[in-house]
Amino acid sequence: xxxxxxASDAQLLERFSGVFERIAAGAVERxxxxxxxxxxxxxxKASGFTALRVPRExxxxxxxxxxxxxLLTRLGEADSNLPQIxxxxxxxxxxxxxxxxxxxxxxxxxxxxxxxxxxAAISERTGSTHxxxxxxxxxxxxxxxxxxxxxxxxxxxxxxxINVTAHDGRDDVHLLVRGDAPGVARLDDWDGFGQRxxxxxTTRFDNVRVEDDQILHRFKASEPRRNTIVxxxxxxxxxxxxxxxxxxxxxxxxxxxxxxxxxxxxPGRSSPRDNPLVHRVVGxxxxxxxxxxxxxxxxxxxxxxxxxxxxxxxxxxxxxxALDIQVYKAQQIVIEQVLEASTLxxxxxxxxxxxxxxxxxxxxxxxxVIASHNPAIQREAAVGDFHLNGTAPNERFSLAHAKDEPPxxxxxxxxxxxxxxxxx
Length: 424
Prior knowledge:
Elements: H1 9-25, H2 27-33, H3 38-47, H4 65-78, H5 81-85, H6 87-98, H7 102-113, E1 118-121, E2 134-137, E3 144-150, E4 161-167, E5 172-178, E6 184-186, E7 203-210, E8 215-219, H8 230-258, H9 276-311, H10 317-344, H11 361-373, H12 376-389, H13 393-401, H14 407-411, H15 413-422
Parallel strand pairs: 1-4
Antiparallel strand pairs: 2-3, 3-7, 4-5, 5-8, 6-7
Helix pairs in contact: 1-3, 1-4, 4-8, 4-9, 6-8, 8-9, 8-10, 8-11, 8-15, 9-10, 10-11, 10-12
C-alpha cells in the first residue's frame, strides 16, 4: 500500500478538541441521568475519529498508533465511557490491517471510513468459556442462521455492525451482523457500578440471517498460531482510558479548588488555592496523570515499532512476546496510579466534594471497572512466569485451558486471546 503522511499531532488535536469539549460538557449530566452517549458517538463518527487508524487509501485518518493513543487519552478525559464503547471498533481495524485478505480489508475498512462502527458480542455469562451461540445452515437459501445470547456486549448497542463469535457444530466462527438486522436484540442491562453508559450488557440473536461475506474467519485446529499486536492493542486502549481519567481527575480537582472560598477548620473566608496542603495534593494528582500518560506513550511507541516491523516482514515471535510483556507491566503501574489519583482527589476539599451533583466518584468507579475487565493479577503472574521460566503469555493461556477446551481454542491462542479481550 502507498503510504500517505498522516496529519501532525497539533493538527489532529485541533481537529478533535472541539468534539472532546462538547462531549465533556455533557458527561456529568449523562452520568446522572444514565443517558446513553448516542449523540457523542455520532459526533465522533461525523468528525472521523472512529476511522482514525484506517489508512488514508481507504478514506480514513491514517494516524500512527502513538497519535491515536494520545487522542484516545484526551477522549477518555472527556468521558471514559467513549473509548470503551469504541474499543472493539478500533481493535477490529487493527485486525483487518493484519489480515492478508485484501478484498475483505477494503470492504470493511471503507465502511468504517464512511462512518460505520463495529461493536462486540464475543463473551458470554456462562459457567465456562465455551461458545454457546450457534450458526447453522439455512436450508437451500445458502445463508446461515445465528442463534444465542452474548453478554459484555460493549459498544454493540451503539454500533452499525456487531462482531460475533459462534459455533457451527465443528469450528468456532468469527462473523459480523448488522446491529439493526431482524432478530437482533440489544439490551442496556449492564449493571456494573462504573462505565455505566457503555451498554456492556446482553445481545440476543434469534434466527438472524448471515451471508457468506459476513463470515470473517473459521478457527481450524490445523492452523498455526498467529502472532498479533491486537492483544496488546486492546490492553493499551484500557491504559489510555485510565490515563484520560487521571487527566480528568486533575482537571476537576483544580476546578474544585479554584472555585472555593473556604478551607475546613479556618474561620471566615480563606483561599484554598493558596493552602500548601492543597498544593501538595494537586501536585500529586498532576504527577500521577503525567506518569500514566508517559507509560501509555512508551507502550504505544512499542506497538508502532512492532506494527512497522510486521509490515516490513521482519517481526519475530520474540517481538510479539516482548510487546505483550511490556503492556502487562504497564498495566500494573497505570492501574495503581489512576486508582490512587481518583481517591486522592477528595483530599482537595471537604464533604462538598462528595456531592452527587459533582459526581466526582465516577472517576474512581470507572477506573475500577476498567481495571477489572482483564484482571491485573493474572497479567502480573504472567510477567513473573515469563521472567522466571521464559513462558510466553500465549503459551500460558493455552496451557491453562488445555484440559477443558477443544483443540481449535488451544491452537489459535493468539487470535483467541485478542477476540476474548475485545469482548470485555
